[in-house]
Design a protein that fits this description.
- The structure is a single chain.
- 33% of the residues lie in helices and 27% in strands.
- By secondary structure, it is of the alpha/beta class.
- The strands form three sheets. Strands 1-4-3-2-5-6 form a six-stranded parallel β-sheet, sandwiched between helices.
- α5 crosses α6 and α7 packs antiparallel against α8.
- The longest helix is centred in the last third of the chain and has 23 residues.
- The chain starts with a strand and ends with a helix.
Length: 315
């Protein structure tokens, strides 16, 4: 997938694409339904598929202080879009100036004059333009004025409830990863760059890679069996989310959450590489150990437990 950042490079996107517009936080099954329709229609018309998205999330600019945590970072979102088969992605910088753009101006300046789209597919709850005053009905009327088609995709349901990013976010924060995977259509994953840590894991005999995660929604703190992808290669591993209470006297509100992963069968350096980590199963909650030998013993048991989990998944 080719990524175009900003409105000054619209000329780099081929004209007459089939497009969709949205944040698509999490890239869940409902989003994939829209993407699949866009891709199929683009192939039928012998043109390219296009996703128009925004960064930062509009809530960060025009929302309240209680805006929801994102499921995936922009970098992760773009990777998942490309994996879905999208040809081009336009990332628009969402600032206060852009937030004031009227709906008609958005359609005329960007969709019509800038991109000359052939068709646009959106969800039935789609809103756009200044203070979200544009809806599907207005988009259809404006599309008639400027000569492109609009397709409205009905929401996808699971067990009678509409699949949404907010529902998935609730499940992630509650630790219901089985249901999260069901709603996403894939295992829940995080994506980040390996950064330097304190080196305690290596000294304890369990070298770990500390991850700098750009998105914000995490499952409950604890130890998890995970599958780690580095440069396309999968590895089995353990991941710990938490404060590492064994090594600090008191956990305070500002105490940072550390995310570190240990690959079970890997020799080499992961520093500065980007890893995608899929959550397989939670092994235990985070625990404070009185003595380091007790921590080491627990880590050995975690490793054995992870191997049992992976052996069952293969069987």
């Amino acid at each position: 997938m080719e990524i175009i950042r900003g409105l000054n490079d619209l000329h780099k996107i081929p004209k007459r694409t089939v497009a969709t517009i949205g944040i698509f936080d999490g890239i869940h099954r409902g989003h994939r339904r829209i993407f699949d329709k866009v891709i199929r229609q683009a192939k039928a018309l012998r043109t390219n598929s296009l996703v128009i998205t925004f960064s930062p999330h509009p809530y960060k600019i025009i929302g309240t202080r209680n805006e929801p945590p994102l499921l995936v970072s922009l970098r992760h979102r773009l990777m998942l879009m490309g994996r879905a088969g999208i040809d081009y992605c336009l990332v628009i910088n969402f600032d206060r100036r852009f937030a004031r753009m009227p709906p008609r101006a958005f359609v005329e300046k960007i969709l019509y004059k800038g991109l000359d789209v052939q068709a646009v597919y959106v969800g039935e709850n789609f809103h756009f333009g200044r203070i979200r005053e544009g809806d599907v009905g207005l988009l259809e009327r404006l599309a008639g004025d400027f000569g492109f088609a609009v397709g409205v995709i009905h929401p996808l349901k699971c067990r009678g409830r509409i699949i949404s990013s907010s529902w998935i976010r609730e499940e992630v924060l509650s630790g219901n990863l089985t249901n999260v995977s069901r709603l996403l259509g894939r295992p829940f994953s995080i994506y980040g760059r390996v950064i330097k840590g304190a080196g305690r894991g290596k000294r304890l005999g369990f070298p770990t890679a500390n991850l700098d995660i750009e998105h914000e929604a995490f499952p409950p703190m604890g130890v998890y069996a995970v599958r780690v992808f580095s440069e396309g290669c999968p590895y089995e591993g353990l991941l710990n989310i938490g404060h590492r209470p064994t090594f600090i006297r008191k956990i305070r509100p500002h105490t940072p959450i550390i995310i570190e992963v240990c690959l079970l069968d890997f020799a080499g350096s992961l520093y500065d590489k980007f890893l995608e980590v899929e959550f397989i199963k939670r092994i235990r909650a985070e625990k404070k150990f009185d003595k380091i030998p007790s921590l080491i013993s627990a880590m050995k048991e975690d490793k054995l437990c992870a191997r049992r989990i992976f052996s069952k998944s293969v069987a």
